[in-house]
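Summary of Year 1 activities. Much of the first year was spent building the evaluation harness for sequence design. The harness presents a backbone, in tokenized form, and records the residue chosen at every position. We chose the following record to illustrate the format because it has been used consistently in internal testing since the harness was completed.
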């Protein structure tokens, strides 16, 4: 029998599942890729075969023109790969279609989480705790200072600012995949049913979410309306458009940004953000540590962020852990 877990190897450009001759979230084109979700630091085109949830494959088709050589795997479905390796896709709670991948081989279980969060999100199924021997976890917000407030508080801040300035609009910078749709859905849940205006770059992804049953309510394009139409309304755009010439067509916009990084005041100042909204699609420090405790793996592998602090926490709590150094794993304006 081979040494324990010799069949799965962290390489600079991804997780290599050796007997199956496949890779998880590789940063370069490979013959066979298992993809956890559609963000560009985990998904890309050019693979010979791409295995992911139907939602992630639809997102990849829209973003990267990935169409041929795809295989859809639904949540809870197990497929058999080469080398007697099985893979099961389990909800990760990050964005639409996001999945943890449970790999089983030679009596050993490995969970690759991709990115995940533990908060309720009306746009995707919640994270499911899955016991395993090795737990490969992200650490985007792997520092104790990162504790995300309840999203209801952030929505209340946004709506209060809107109500206080009826002749302006509130322009919210939000990442086009996941964050924008979550903000819209949470506004609807908070009782805001007025039209929400979109930068043109947001439209196709919002429509894709609606195709998969996510109700976003009335949406309108900024380009189809006048300044007066948008007074007293919320406008959502990519973070890159917050302070560019495009925003000049808006009625006295109050700039806001939805991101876990808004916990850091300097980040808000750098972007000239008047209303920082601490809204993240990643687990915060308390959720990262709680998840490791609940999964209770024999060993945790830590990647995609602040590995050192989470590694130290594991050591202090007598939990085996190691930090991985994967190329191409960068946060996308969370």
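For this record, the design step produced the sequence shown next.
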């Amino acid at each position: 029998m081979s040494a324990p877990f010799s069949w799965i190897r962290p390489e600079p450009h991804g997780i290599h599942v050796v007997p199956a001759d496949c890779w998880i979230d590789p940063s370069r084109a490979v013959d066979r890729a298992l993809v956890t979700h559609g963000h560009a630091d985990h998904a890309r085109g050019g693979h010979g075969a791409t295995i992911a949830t139907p939602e992630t494959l639809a997102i990849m088709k829209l973003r990267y023109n990935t169409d041929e050589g795809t295989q859809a795997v639904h949540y809870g479905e197990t497929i058999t790969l080469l080398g007697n390796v099985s893979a099961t896709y389990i909800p990760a709670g990050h964005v639409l279609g996001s999945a943890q991948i449970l790999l089983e081989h030679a009596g050993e279980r490995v969970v690759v989480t991709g990115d995940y969060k533990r908060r309720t999100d009306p746009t995707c199924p919640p994270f499911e705790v899955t016991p395993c021997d090795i737990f490969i976890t992200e650490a985007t917000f792997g520092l104790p200072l990162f504790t995300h407030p309840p999203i209801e508080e952030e929505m209340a801040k946004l709506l209060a600012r809107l109500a206080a300035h009826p002749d302006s609009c509130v322009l919210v910078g939000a990442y086009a995949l996941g964050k924008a749709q979550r903000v819209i859905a949470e506004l609807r849940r908070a009782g805001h049913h007025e039209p929400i205006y979109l930068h043109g770059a947001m439209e196709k992804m919002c429509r894709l979410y609606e195709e998969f049953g996510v109700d976003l309510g009335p949406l309108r394009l900024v380009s189809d309306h006048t300044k007066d139409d948008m007074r007293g309304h919320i406008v959502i755009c990519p973070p890159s458009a917050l302070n560019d010439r495009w925003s000049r067509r808006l009625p006295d916009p109050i700039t806001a940004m939805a991101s876990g990084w808004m916990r850091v005041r300097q980040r808000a100042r750098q972007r000239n953000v008047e209303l920082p909204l601490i809204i993240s699609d990643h687990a915060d420090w308390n959720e990262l540590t709680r998840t490791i405790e609940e999964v209770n793996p024999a060993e945790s592998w830590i990647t995609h962020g602040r590995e050192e602090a989470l590694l130290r926490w594991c050591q202090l709590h007598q939990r085996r852990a190691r930090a991985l150094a994967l190329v191409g794993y960068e946060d996308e304006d969370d």
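Helices lie at 54-64, 151-164, 179-189, 203-211, 227-230, 265-270, 285-295, 307-316. Quantitative recovery figures across the full test set are reported in Table 2.
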